[in-house]
Design goal:
Elements (H helix, E strand, L loop, with lengths): L3 H4 L6 E5 H18 L2 E5 L9 H4 L5 E4 L2 H11 L2 E5 L5 H10 L2 E4 L2 H13 L5 E7 L21 E2 L12 E3 L8 H19 L4 E3 L13 H15 L2 E4 L2 H5 L3 E12 L3 E5 L3 H4 L2 H4 L9 E2 L6 E6 L8 E7 L8 E5 L19 E5 L5 E5 L3 H6 L3
Parallel strand pairs: 1-17, 2-3, 2-10, 3-4, 4-5, 5-6, 6-7, 6-8, 8-9, 9-10, 12-14
Antiparallel strand pairs: 1-11, 11-12, 11-16, 13-15, 14-15, 17-18
Length: about 375
């Protein structure tokens, strides 16, 4: 990471993405592809930084998108396979999706039947799939659980009588930040409920949520699970772990704008949970801060809060060895994935800048927020 002198030149707030860490993650994913025979796609919903696409595309098979704009970005900037899944498709966008996609996954059989004539008349050959719902997940938080009760995602086994004509593959997604033992149990349920369909398709997409690049991830188990599945059903296997590409590869640097006291010390930062890290408020997610720990664990405890006017825009309570003051800089870790892609400009708060820390240890600012960004979104 940058030293203090180099950090002083970085604008605040700013995401600093470590190019070397991204490449190390990609090397692991590339090895998984090579040794297991699967094909790994980068989920653009988790990490989208076109400046690093030339590096990432050396290792991964392509991108997966949730709609037209992501698909177009993957086609134009990543340059390899483009896979798309959405719960529903807008007819005004669908023909363009057909022109730029390699795989399109449909959320229901009825949806496929409506789209089939358009697909078959398309000049571009697109491989089509159906998303299935195994009705099984080990994700504890419904916000992140694709198989929660009443989910809108996929076809249940009771409603899936046969593989529709024209369908090449099946797709499921039921994990979030989990290890390969969760994947193995999930595969067991998929086989139990959909086994008679698996040998009738050309490919199966295991979805995302697999934290393959985490230090404790059991890659050997993953190799076995994928190899056994490919051998049993004679299919190509895809996976799309978005967070694994950028895991522990970036920080969000912020600055203390003021410290006030109301029964406790409150440090007001130049970032916002509501605008820059919504999982804090939506799912009680807690960010880690370099040099910080839990409240009361160190000498000086502060509530870290946003400069927005939303009363509940609170990042959390932390303690530090040294007191915070106006101008103190704080570094929130593991802030590359599911951060830049989900930002907003609530209250007119500028988006954090984006910087890449190159392998040479030089920092390059690739994006700065401006008033024009705010104004152009509104009129």
């Amino acid at each position: 990471m940058l030293d203090e002198e180099a950090l002083a030149e970085v604008p605040s707030p700013c995401y600093i993405i470590d190019e070397l860490a991204i490449e190390e993650n990609c090397k692991i994913l590339g090895e998984v592809q090579e040794l297991s025979g699967c094909r790994i796609l980068m989920a653009l919903k988790g990490f989208t930084l076109p400046s690093l696409f030339p590096l990432i595309s050396k290792y991964l098979h392509g991108t997966c998108a949730s709609g037209l704009y992501e698909a177009r970005l993957g086609r134009e900037r990543f340059g390899k396979e483009v896979h798309v899944f959405a719960p529903a498709y807008d007819d005004r966008e669908f023909e363009e999706l057909l022109r730029i996609s390699d795989h399109i996954v449909f959320n229901s059989i009825a949806q496929w039947e409506r789209a089939r004539p358009v697909v078959e008349e398309s000049a571009r050959k697109v491989s089509c799939g159906i998303r299935i719902n195994p009705e099984y997940s080990e994700v504890p938080i419904d916000l992140w659980n694709p198989c929660a009760r009443y989910t809108r995602f996929g076809v249940r086994a009771d409603d899936f009588r046969t593989v529709p004509e024209g369908i090449d593959g099946l797709h499921f997604h039921a994990l979030c930040q989990q290890n390969s033992d969760s994947l193995e149990r999930l595969i067991g349920v998929v086989e139990e409920k959909f086994e008679r369909h698996l040998s009738r398709v050309r490919w199966v997409n295991f979805g995302g949520g697999q934290l393959i690049t985490a230090p404790d991830y059991d890659i050997d188990r993953l190799f076995r699970v994928v190899a056994d599945f490919r051998e049993e059903y004679v299919v190509d296997v895809y996976m799309e772990p978005g967070e694994a590409v950028a895991l522990n590869a970036g920080v969000l640097m912020s600055t203390v704008l003021d410290v006030v006291h109301n029964e406790m010390d409150i440090a007001i930062l130049d970032i916002s949970a509501w605008a820059h890290a919504q999982d804090i408020l939506a799912a009680a997610f807690r960010m880690d801060v370099i040099g910080g720990c839990g409240p009361g664990e160190s000498k000086h405890t502060y509530r870290l809060a946003s400069r927005s006017c939303l009363s509940g825009d609170i990042i959390g309570d932390y303690s530090f060895k040294q007191p915070l003051h106006r101008g103190s800089r704080l570094m929130f870790t593991d802030m590359a994935s599911y951060s830049v892609v989900s930002n907003n400009m609530f209250n007119g708060i500028p988006l954090p800048a984006i910087a890449i820390l190159a392998k040479s240890n030089e920092v390059r600012i690739v994006r700065r927020s401006s008033y024009e960004d705010f104004e152009s979104r509104l009129s």
